[in-house]
Amino acid sequence: SMVRTWLASLKQEGQSSKTINRKISSLRSFFKNLVKNQVLEQGPMGSISSPKNAKRLPQFVDSRDIDTLFSAVEFGNDWQGLTERLILQILYSCGLRQAELISLQQHHVDLVNSSIKVLGKGNKERVIPIASGLRQGIEHYITQKKVEFPERHTGPLLLNKKGKKLYPRYVYDVVKKYLSLITTIEKRSPHILRHSFATHLTNNGADINAIKELLGHSSLAATQIYTHNSIEKLKDAHKKAHPKA
Question: Using CA atoms, how far apart are residues 242 and 245, in angstroms rounded to an integer?
């Protein structure tokens, strides 16, 4: 039919499945209206199926850019600078969701055993190990907090310059500001640092079940998307290095 021919031409032009599906939806509504108003007896869209939307791979920050972030970017020496640096460190080093970061309580940090307890979706608890650099950063932050806000020795670990709990827009703006300095990727949200955490673990050979537990995923299927990023990296390396690629 003419409709099929037109849709095939859109695909040949390189139009995305999402765009084609929008056009199909508009046509369905158009022909449905014609049938309803008795202009046509039957529309041509009954046998037209919508193409599946291709799953987009999670974006992530290159590990070299992460190194630049923590080794070369200037953070202020005041309370705001300390907080902003620790926000980025925890999001990347622990793979936390934004809400988990904001609700992280000071008493959930175990400096003796170098771990933090995180309350995830559905109040599901998980324990995440922390590296020595992050452990030192948190320890320094808590020490400074006693000076800045002596009355806030319990409650949320991270506080803004007024001594209040962080809010989502604040965290988002901090991440966007600093990622803009080190990467050109389109998305620069807290979740990108979670994607980066998982992708870098996968690329360095971490067990997928361990990554699932660290991310707090309820099923392995949600974690397997990161193995696709790893495969894309292997394909790229093969293409660049193999003489017959």
Answer: 5
